[in-house]
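Troubleshooting log. The previous structure file for this entry was overwritten by mistake, so regenerating from the original sequence record. Sequence copied from the archived sheet and checked twice against the printout by T.R.
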Amino acid sequence: MDFTVTGMTCQHCVASVTEEVSELGVTEVDVDLATGRLHVVGDVTPEQVQAAVAEAGSYTAQPA
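Regenerated output below.
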C-alpha cells in the first residue's frame, strides 16, 4: 500500500511515522521525507495505517 503523508518536516518525523506503523506488525515500512511517500507491506488495512500515522504526531496519510 502507498500513502501520501502530510505534516512531516524532518528525519524525526520520519522516524516517528516509521516506528508507529512498524508496531502494526507489517513486514516493510518505507518513508520518504522528500516526497511524503509511505510504502507499507503487510496484513493491515488502510485505516490501521492512517491511525498509526496520526498517532505518530500531527500527520495525515491519504492513499496514493
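DSSP finds two helices and four strands in the chain. Archived copy saved in two places this time.
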